[in-house]
Each structure stands twice: as structure tokens, then as C-alpha cells.
């Protein structure tokens, strides 16, 4: 669409606006791989709609806004500005990364046991699947405040590790571990359905874990 | 669940206890500060609350923040931008001045030698059933139930 005046100034302004808009849309909310109600009765459709459509969407929008601010600070060599925006990038970027993994870690056809190389690795590094599940459940339930429980892969030692991260701290930049399976225990992930009974939520979520996705994440990095 | 009597919990006691570990290695702080934080919380709210602070508290807030409006903005910002779980606080610091800030999880201002006179729980459990993800709406609505008489009482006690 041509500017009314057709001047170079107007064209430049439109081009910069278009570039800024493109940057603003750099990250997008991924679609859920299943219907919002598909994980019931483990996770209610109400929670899934809020969790994906509101919480994850907000992380995406705020990440895009933070990266715009970062870009602006970098371009104007504003070191204080660059440093000041790091917290928002970590929080919203971590939130986007974590939830993008989470939706795929779960499936209405999930549950049961892992098989093949993943099961072998779990048995090798934990002793048995039951021991692994108990450790991950305990550590995830025990998180103080908001955070995530993780099954991660330590590439240098070729081993699986269970750990936790606070808030939206993303696993890989924080610990070096490759994320395989995450369990979100921010209260928004379960409160509408389970209220304060976090252990019940974490015990139930194993019924919808998508072991195919977890296995693929491991095979992709080995 | 560990229970402790409220009476006799001095500032030093709280700071010391929050650094202790139970024999099985679990930190006590989340439980020790959890109780006084919530005990304060219930008292600084009232169905007849809202309005403005009492004159003495208002004067102290204006002295620290410039105006009540600026103080409210600072408090709302602290409560809104606490990433994850935590609390927003109005405290009397070691110089007797008002400060407004947030803490993570169940960390208490007492841990840094400050006396909380007003606190707002922004853990999701405090608002999710009513407000879902809309924490700002919860914060704004909450200002209508602040029990300023109790805040004034705590301020007077903090000033000695």
C-alpha cells in the first residue's frame, strides 16, 4: 500500500514499522497437539485452556516485547538497558521453552511405561522405572513455590538425571541438562482441579506422559 | 507438619530458624515464615476495610514515597512483577522508614531485619480460583479490603 505523500520518509517509516512488527511476531504460541479436554480426567479442559491460551500466550507476548527492548538497547549501546531486560527474557523465554516442551510431553494416549532405549537408560541410571518415578515425583512435589520437575540428559556423562528448577528457569541454560520430560508445578497448572493437593496432581500426571516424545528427545541428542 | 507458637518468635529467632535444616535435609524457612506471613495476612484484611491509611501511616508513606499514589503504584508494581510465588510488602526498615518491595516464596522481610506492617500474598493459590491468571485484577480489588487500623497498630508497634 502506497503512502499518501509517496515520500522517501514515509516509505522508510513504513519499512521500519514492518520490520518492528515482524520482530514483534518472532515467537508464536504453538497449538496444542490435542483438544483442550483431551487430557481429562487427569487435567481438566478448563486448566488446559487457561494454561495454554492465557499463561503460555502471555509468556510469548512478553518475550517478544522483551526482545524488542533488548534489540533497541543493543542498537543504542545502552548497556544498562541490556542488563535490565535480562530478567524478563529469562522468565518469559523460559516460560515459552518450558511450556512448548510440556504440551508435547503429554498425550491423551500417554501413560504406561517407556520402552526400548529410554527404558534401558532409566533402568541403568535409576535402578528401575519405579525408583525413577518415585524420585521424580518426590522432587517435583517438594519444589518450594513455583517451578518444574525435570528428567534431563547429561550429554557429557551419557546419563539421565532428575532435578528441579525454580520459577520458569529453563533447564538447559540453567543446568546444562537436555530437557526430556518436564512437570509444571506452578499452582496454575493444577489448582482449579486439585486445589492445594499437589501430590495428587503429580501422581496422576504419569497417566498422560507421552513416552514416545520423551524417547525422541533422548534419541535426538544421543 | 512442624508447628511453632507465635508468641516469642523474635526477629532473631525467625532469621535463625529460616536457616536451619530439618534432620532429613529439608529447609524450614518455607514453613517457618509461611505461618507468620499468613498470620499477618488475615489480620490486615477486613470486610470493612479499604479507603485510605490512617494519618500517621499516610504521613510515613508520603515521606518515603512522595505521595500515596506513588506508593500504591510502587506496591502494585512490586506485587505484579514478582515472577513466580511470593509476597508484596510494606515494611518499617531498620531506620524506621517505610519501604515497599516484594519477596520470593515465603521469604519474610524479618529475614532482613525489617518489620512488615502490610503484606499481600501473590502465590497463585491466593487468587487463582477467583481471578485465574489475572493477578493485576486481584491486586487492585484487594486494596478494598485492607484493614488500615491494623496496619496502623503494627506501624506504631514497629516504631516502638
UniProtKB/TrEMBL annotation, chain A:
Enzyme Commission number(s) from the entry: 1.15.1.1
Molecular function via GO: manganese ion binding; superoxide dismutase activity
Chain ranges of the Manganese/iron superoxide dismutase C-terminal domain: 115-217
PROSITE patterns (alphabetical): SOD_MN
Catalytic reaction equation(s): 2 superoxide + 2 H(+) = H2O2 + O2
Residues annotated for Mn(2+) binding in this entry: 51, 99, 184, 188
Cofactor(s) named in the record: Mn(2+)
Annotated ranges, domain Manganese/iron superoxide dismutase N-terminal: 26-107
UniProt keyword list: Manganese, Metal-binding, Mitochondrion, Oxidoreductase
Chief location of this protein within or outside the cell: mitochondrion
Entry GO terms, CC: mitochondrion
InterPro entries from the UniProt entry: Fe/Mn_Superoxide_Dismutase (IPR050265), Mn/Fe_SOD (IPR001189), Mn/Fe_SOD_BS (IPR019833), Mn/Fe_SOD_C (IPR019832), Mn/Fe_SOD_N (IPR019831), Mn/Fe_SOD_N_sf (IPR036324), SOD_C_sf (IPR036314)
Protein's cellular compartments: Mitochondrion
One Pfam match: Sod_Fe_N
Protein family (similarity comment): Belongs to the iron/manganese superoxide dismutase family.
Protein function: Destroys superoxide anion radicals which are normally produced within the cells and which are toxic to biological systems. Destroys radicals which are normally produced within the cells and which are toxic to biological systems.
PANTHER family hit by this protein: SUPEROXIDE DISMUTASE 2 (PTHR11404), SUPEROXIDE DISMUTASE [MN], MITOCHONDRIAL (PTHR11404:SF6)
Record note on quaternary structure: Homotetramer.
Protein name per UniProt: Superoxide dismutase
Automatic annotation (TrEMBL), chain B:
All copies of domain Manganese/iron superoxide dismutase C-terminal, residue ranges: 54-154
Amino-acid positions noted as binding Mn(2+) in the UniProt annotation, renumbered to this chain: 38, 121, 125
One GO cellular component term: cytoplasm
The enzyme's E.C. designation: 1.15.1.1
UniProt-recorded Gene Ontology molecular function terms: metal ion binding; superoxide dismutase activity
Keyword check for DNA repair: no
Keywords of this entry: Metal-binding, Oxidoreductase
Record carries keyword Oxidoreductase: yes
PANTHER family in the record: 37S RIBOSOMAL PROTEIN S26, MITOCHONDRIAL, SMALL RIBOSOMAL SUBUNIT PROTEIN MS42
Entry similarity comment: Belongs to the iron/manganese superoxide dismutase family.
Name the record gives this protein: superoxide dismutase
The species this protein was found in: Geodia barretti (Barrett's horny sponge)
Classification of source organism: Eukaryota, Metazoa, Porifera, Demospongiae, Heteroscleromorpha
Amino acid at each position: 500500500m502506497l503512502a499518501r505523500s509517496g515520500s522517501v520518509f514515509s516509505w522508510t517509516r513504513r519499512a521500519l514499522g514492518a520490520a518492528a512488527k515482524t520482530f514483534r511476531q518472532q515467537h508464536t504460541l504453538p497449538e496444542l497437539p490435542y483438544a483442550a479436554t483431551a487430557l481429562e480426567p487427569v487435567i481438566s479442559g478448563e486448566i488446559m485452556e487457561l494454561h495454554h491460551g492465557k499463561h503460555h500466550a502471555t509468556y510469548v507476548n512478553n518475550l517478544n516485547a522483551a526482545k524488542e527492548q533488548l534489540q533497541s538497547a543493543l542498537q543504542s549501546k545502552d548497556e544498562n538497558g541490556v542488563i535490565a531486560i535480562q530478567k524478563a527474557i529469562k522468565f518469559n523465554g523460559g516460560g515459552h521453552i518450558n511450556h512448548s516442551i510440556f504440551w508435547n510431553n503429554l498425550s491423551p494416549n500417554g501413560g504406561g511405561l517407556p520402552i526400548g532405549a529410554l527404558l534401558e537408560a532409566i533402568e541403568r541410571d535409576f535402578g528401575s522405572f519405579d525408583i525413577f518415578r518415585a524420585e521424580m515425583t518426590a522432587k517435583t512435589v517438594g519444589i518450594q513455590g513455583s517451578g518444574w520437575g525435570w528428567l534431563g540428559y547429561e550429554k557429557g556423562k551419557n546419563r539421565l538425571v532428575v532435578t528441579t528448577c525454580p520459577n520458569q528457569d529453563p533447564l538447559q541454560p540453567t543446568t546444562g541438562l537436555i530437557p526430556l520430560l518436564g512437570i509444571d508445578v506452578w499452582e496454575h497448572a493444577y489448582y482449579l482441579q486439585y486445589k492445594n493437593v499437589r501430590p495428587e496432581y503429580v501422581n496422576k500426571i504419569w497417566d498422560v506422559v507421552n513416552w514416545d516424545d520423551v524417547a525422541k528427545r533422548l534419541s535426538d541428542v544421543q | 507438619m512442624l508447628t511453632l507458637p507465635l508468641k516469642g518468635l523474635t526477629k532473631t529467632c525467625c532469621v535463625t530458624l529460616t536457616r536451619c535444616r530439618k534432620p532429613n535435609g529439608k529447609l524450614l524457612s518455607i514453613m517457618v515464615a509461611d505461618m507468620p506471613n499468613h498470620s499477618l495476612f488475615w489480620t490486615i484484611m477486613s470486610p470493612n476495610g479499604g479507603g485510605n491509611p490512617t494519618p500517621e501511616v499516610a504521613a510515613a508513606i508520603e515521606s518515603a514515597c512522595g505521595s500515596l499514589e506513588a506508593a500504591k503504584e510502587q506496591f502494585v508494581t512490586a506485587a505484579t512483577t514478582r515472577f513466580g510465588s511470593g509476597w508484596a510488602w510494606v515494611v518499617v526498615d531498620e531506620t524506621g522508614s517505610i519501604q515497599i518491595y516484594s519477596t520470593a516464596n515465603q521469604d519474610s522481610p524479618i529475614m532482613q531485619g525489617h518489620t512488615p506492617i502490610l503484606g499481600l500474598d501473590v502465590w497463585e493459590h491466593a487468587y487463582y480460583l477467583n481471578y485465574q491468571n489475572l493477578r493485576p485484577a486481584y491486586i487492585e480489588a484487594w486494596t478494598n479490603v485492607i484493614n488500615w487500623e491494623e496496619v496502623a497498630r503494627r506501624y506504631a508497634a514497629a516504631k516502638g
